[in-house]
Amino acid sequence: MAVFKSDIVEDLYEIGEVLGSGHFGQVKKVRERATGTSWAGKFLKIRRKGGSLLGMDRTSVEREVEILQALKHPNIVMLKDVFESRSEMVLVLELISGGELFDFIAEKDNLLETEAIQFMKQILEGLRFMHSNSIAHFDLKPENIMLSEKVSPQLNVKLIDFGLAYRFHQGQEYKSTSGTPQYVAPEVISFEPLSTAADMWSIGVITYILLSGMSPFQGDTDEETLRNVVAVHYEFEDLYFKTTSSMAKDFIQKLLVKDSRERMTAEECLLHPWIKVNPPILNGMIVAVVCVCGVIFFGWDNCCLFQPITRKQVANRNRSSINMRNFKRFNAKRKWKMSYNMVSVCNRLVNLRLVCKHRSDTDLLQRQCESDVEDSESNPSSMLRRRLSSSS
Length: 392
Fold this sequence. Notes:
Elements: H1 9-12, E1 13-21, E2 25-32, E3 38-45, H2 58-70, E4 79-84, E5 88-93, H3 101-106, H4 113-132, E6 135-136, E7 145-147, E8 157-159, E9 166-167, H5 186-189, H6 197-212, H7 222-231, H8 238-241, H9 246-253, H10 266-271, E10 281-282, E11 285-286, E12 289-290, E13 295-297, E14 309-310, H11 311-319, H12 324-359, H13 362-373
Antiparallel strand pairs: 1-2, 2-3, 3-5, 4-5, 6-9, 7-8, 10-11, 12-13, 13-14
Helix pairs in contact: 4-6, 6-9, 6-12, 12-13
């Protein structure tokens, strides 16, 4: 059950500058009076029963708060405090100043696979913890993978935005059509019962993009993208994967599997030879089994899950790099699309307000604005759109 504080947020925190704005509130920098520590305060307007239809649904915020309060992990954004009043909720979250991981990578001139693996490993560590608590994220994409800081001896990845996350309970079935088209699993589109395996599909898509700068299922329209996902229609074109190791491709192929039961789990991903970059070391010696044929096992635990790898494969992975030129192009296009969508939504909301004011039709404004920014899950065949959450 979500735990809220009845205190007044201003009594415990000094409210600072606005860091960002959404449809239902603002994110502000706040400073804890007792310690001087800076945090991010998310001030959300809450929809009141029998009142305006504008604002966040209280139940949705409570679900997200309950999930975040259960997830204490170095690779998951931390929720410190939650305050509530009659019309507003304030979530005090860890202040993440490093920006998006993809933006950080796009600033580099080159990146080896072994460097990219270190980021993927942190994402998987966060997912493993999440899934071990029966929680699925359901909205994994570049925008929700951040860095705590850009300048640090150890770059720390953080998973954010748990607005679509769900905690599974034994014996209960869960279905949803929420998500972002190019990252959702086939079972989401088909409106089938979901599991944590849907997150692993998204990891496959993210890895594909990270290595090649191409989206595996992206079509000219959302409808075409969704058809490609359901058909699991993708390939490793030499033009984009010329510098990609065979181990990396194998990792992706074990995730982009239509049958969710056949996908690797987060635990299995961390044991995959591509992710397990360095073999365990004991007293300065590599702990590995080398067969007479030259085959290497990185520890006994891999023997049961994966095919053995050769010295040549290890060397190939260590010198492989991501397609940086294409990745930069993909990231620039992604950022442009995000900006365009935000401006487009804002313009539609402004126009609706002007029309409604002219007609003096407040009810129409409320209905149209709500439908403009929130999606219905009642029609599984409808276009998948990212529902706005308290982390938006």
